[in-house]
Design goal:
Length: 203
């Protein structure tokens, strides 16, 4: 009787112990699965965050590039328009002096030169430094380019005329035009490189 009771007790204890161990093992396995899932979620969230930051950087770089490109193009367009306005003003040197035509074309040329200065100021804000520096020199060259026709036409308004004046104008105009073109040739590759660097920064 006592032996049978002991056997029963041992069996019950063994069953309880076995059940307890099984439950503990199952709980441990479940906890490990949960921890693995949490680590996976953390990795996925970190990957999504990296992708999000990469997309934001790409969008910002594209925005910066678009702004720079627009500023660079505006400067080149303004300088081109200013050269055209100065050329129109300079043509008056070869004709009899007309105060009204002089005033109109001089005003147009001055407006175009000022527009070039404003465009160069925008490039100063967009950078980078080397492009901004050449943009400043470009605007100064355009500003100087208006000088020869204005000086020649002022002399004409005072009654000074002759081949010497015309030759002096042509020489001075050729010098300032070469200065403008030299600045343009320096500006273009620097601007292109600055834009390319922003594209490379997205990768």
């Amino acid at each position: 009787m006592a032996s049978s009771l002991s056997t029963t007790v041992i069996a019950i204890c063994g069953t309880l112990l076995g059940s307890g161990l099984t439950a503990w093992a199952a709980a441990l396995a479940e906890r490990r699965r949960n921890e693995a899932l949490e680590r996976q979620q953390i990795r996925e969230e970190a990957a999504r965050e990296r992708d999000r930051r990469r997309e934001l950087r790409a969008e910002h770089q594209k925005w910066r590039r678009d702004r720079r490109q627009a500023a660079y193009q505006d400067l080149m367009d303004a300088a081109h328009d200013a050269q055209g306005a100065v050329w129109q003003l300079g043509r008056l040197v070869l004709e009899p002096f007309d105060q009204h035509r002089y005033d109109v074309r001089r005003g147009a040329a001055i407006d175009a030169v000022r527009a070039t200065r404003r465009a160069a100021d925008a490039v100063q804000l967009e950078g980078p430094e080397d492009v901004a520096q050449v943009a400043e020199e470009y605007a100064r060259a355009v500003d100087r380019h208006i000088g020869p026709p204005v000086e020649a036409l002022m002399e004409m308004s005072r009654g000074s005329a002759g081949e010497t004046r015309i030759e002096g104008y042509r020489s001075a105009a050729a010098e300032t035009e070469a200065l403008v073109e030299g600045c343009r040739q320096r500006f273009v590759p620097l601007a292109r490189r600055a834009l390319d660097e922003l594209v490379e920064g997205v990768d």
